[in-house]
């Protein structure tokens, strides 16, 4: 498959449809998106601490209804959000009327916008998205391409191991009903070593990684550098040239 064909086809429309069906509840903090709302302050603070968002130009890949995009804007970044779901993008645009923030949303793939806006962003985020596309390495390459030399690229996804299957699928989807059944496909989970290799091959330097843990008794999420066994965040940088 040629590179241009990959750009056009690196979308799993069944995955897009899952989130389209839930779009109206994206900003309901007691809906299926409660976990996303709960972890968002941790994610946004991690990104801000490492990239100092104020005054920076940022792009949020796979932005959905705009939860992270708005948090980045609140930290003072100039934000663009992209997604392939029309309904979530519609919700994201509508929510701007409530938040009063300015964010540019567009329905486009990472690969397509990377061709158009290469090297234009100080900060690139791609969180909870790589496990929903056919070729995650292609998205990682696009993120690198979008980033300015010396800029920051952040990824988050789910590890692939028995514990992750137990916590992220059995626990979250079937026992605790935190997520709709079928949200995740275990085969698409990505081990940290695999994501590190995608980043390295794309020309990014992995600078830090931390896990995100959940205590079902206290219902509290925390970042934990020593535990990347289920959810994890990765900070990479594009070398200065």
UniProtKB/TrEMBL annotation:
Binding site for S-adenosyl-L-methionine: 43, 62, 83, 127
MF terms in GO: 2-polyprenyl-6-hydroxyphenol methylase activity; 3-demethylubiquinol 3-O-methyltransferase activity; polyprenyldihydroxybenzoate methyltransferase activity
Gene3D superfamilies to which the protein is assigned, alphabetical: Vaccinia Virus protein VP39 (3.40.50.150)
Protein origin, superkingdom: Bacteria
CDD domains: AdoMet_MTases
UniProtKB keywords: Methyltransferase, S-adenosyl-L-methionine, Transferase, Ubiquinone biosynthesis
Alphabetized InterPro entries for the sequence: SAM-dependent_MTases_sf (IPR029063), UbiG_MeTrfase (IPR010233)
Catalyzed reactions: a 3-(all-trans-polyprenyl)benzene-1,2-diol + S-adenosyl-L-methionine = a 2-methoxy-6-(all-trans-polyprenyl)phenol + S-adenosyl-L-homocysteine + H(+); a 3-demethylubiquinol + S-adenosyl-L-methionine = a ubiquinol + S-adenosyl-L-homocysteine + H(+)
Pathway(s) of this molecule: Cofactor biosynthesis; ubiquinone biosynthesis
BP terms from Gene Ontology: methylation
E.C. code: 2.1.1.222, 2.1.1.64
Keyword check for Cell membrane: no
One Pfam assignment: Methyltransf_23
Record family assignment: Belongs to the methyltransferase superfamily. UbiG/COQ3 family.
Summary of the function given for this chain in its UniProt record: O-methyltransferase that catalyzes the 2 O-methylation steps in the ubiquinone biosynthetic pathway.
Protein name, UniProt field: Ubiquinone biosynthesis O-methyltransferase
Organism: Maribrevibacterium harenarium
Organism classification: Bacteria, Pseudomonadati, Pseudomonadota, Gammaproteobacteria, Oceanospirillales
Gene that specifies this protein: ubiG
């Amino acid at each position: 498959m040629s590179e241009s064909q990959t750009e056009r086809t690196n979308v799993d429309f069944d995955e897009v449809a899952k989130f389209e069906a839930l779009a109206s509840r994206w900003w309901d903090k007691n809906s299926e998106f409660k976990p996303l709302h709960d972890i968002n302050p941790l994610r946004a603070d991690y990104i801000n601490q490492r990239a100092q968002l104020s005054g920076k130009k940022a792009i949020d890949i796979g932005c959905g209804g705009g939860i992270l995009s708005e948090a980045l804007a609140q930290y003072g970044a100039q934000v663009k959000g992209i997604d392939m779901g029309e309904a979530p993008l519609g919700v994201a645009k509508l929510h701007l009327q409530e938040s009063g923030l300015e964010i540019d949303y567009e329905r486009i793939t990472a690969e397509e916008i990377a061709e158009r806006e290469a090297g234009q962003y100080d900060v690139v985020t791609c969180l909870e998205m790589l496990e929903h596309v056919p070729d995650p390495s292609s998205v990682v390459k696009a993120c690198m391409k979008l980033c300015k030399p010396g800029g920051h690229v952040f990824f988050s996804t789910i590890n692939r191991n028995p514990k992750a299957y137990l916590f992220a699928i059995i626990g979250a989807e079937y026992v605790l009903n935190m997520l709709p059944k079928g949200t995740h496909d275990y085969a698409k989970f990505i081990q940290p070593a695999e994501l590190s290799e995608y980043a390295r091959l794309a020309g990014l330097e992995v600078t830090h990684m931390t896990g995100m843990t959940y205590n079902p008794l206290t219902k509290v999420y925390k970042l934990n550098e020593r535990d990347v066994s289920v959810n994890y965040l990765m900070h990479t940088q594009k070398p200065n040239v």
